Amino acid sequence: MSMYSLSQFQSKNDRVLDDSELRRVAPSIFAESAYSGASSRYTFIPTSQVVAALRKEGWQPVKAAESRTRIEEKNGYQKHMIRFRHADSLANNAPLVLGDSHAEIVLVNGHDGSSSYQIHAGLYRLVCANGMVVADSTIEKVCTRHTGDIIGQVIEGTYSIIDAAPRAAEKVASWQALQLSAREREVFGAAALELKWEGETAPVDAARVVQPRRVADNQPNLWATFNTVQENLLRGGMRGRGATGKRTTTREVSGVSENVRLNKALWTLADEFAKLKRAA
């Protein structure tokens, strides 16, 4: 069994990451072979080649993450995640700037045989430097097996994701227009805590998880509430009490898979919450 802890580096001031920075935070991106335990049907195409191909298409890496594992032999091959933003978006050119956010693509892969190439739609919110992953119900992820023309399929999948980006923008606009009462915000927060702790006792309550970290999010609409909750749960740092009553501080979400899972679950929660609110 692997125990994962997320190591990540966020670019500052929209500065893209070069290979030396990517290698420092996620050396598995540059693996020179597949993990010895991978299937014989696994075609090895290093993520570094995909990164190079995406750069030629104008997509620049702005954040990287790598999971850690207790299995020593898997070090250097484990699952990793890279967020890309297009040069047009970095220059604040439409159509990749969606309101207060930038469209991104989120690439997930692993050279240990644990993951296909996955391309997810992402949003980067400027006001809080918050990276989100859009749920499949809004923009379906693209998965590419480690066979055939992997690089070509990833490039094609990237543009199919971006072509669908207006759907995410429509969601954002509709959530911004949807006003919530204080009680509704707490209901949303309570549901989010269930998604995070999955039946276990959460160390914080709903009132705490919907508490904004900045003035810009102190707005009673669904978009601001979603962002507040997403940031609080993903980044951690909230003080509370554990199941035994001992004081504790929540941790940043660890693990590439858990980061994507929780991001998408929260997006789906907001989408369903909006439907219920409109139907009421």
Question: What this model shows, in words?
Answer:
The strands form two sheets. Strands 1, 2, 3, 4, 5, 6, 7 and 8 form an eight-stranded antiparallel sheet that branches. The protein has nine helices and ten strands. By secondary structure, it is an alpha+beta fold. It folds into two domains: 7-165, no CATH class; 178-279, no CATH class. Helix content is 38%, strand content 19%. A hairpin with a 4-residue loop joins strand 6 (117-125) and strand 7 (130-133).
User: How helical, in percent, are the residues?
Assistant: 25-40%
Shape, per Cα inertia axes: globular
Give me the count of strands: 10
**Main β sheet profile:** 8 strands, antiparallel
Assembly context of the chains: single chain
SSE series: EHHEEHEEEEEHHHHHEEH
Structural class: alpha+beta
Q: Termini separation (Å)?
A: 45 Å
**Unreliable residue runs:** 1-13
The percent range for strand residues is 15-25%
The average pLDDT value, as a whole number, equals 87
Radius of gyration, in angstroms, nearest whole number? 19 Å
Q: How many structural domains are formed by the residues?
A: 2
H/I helix tally: 9
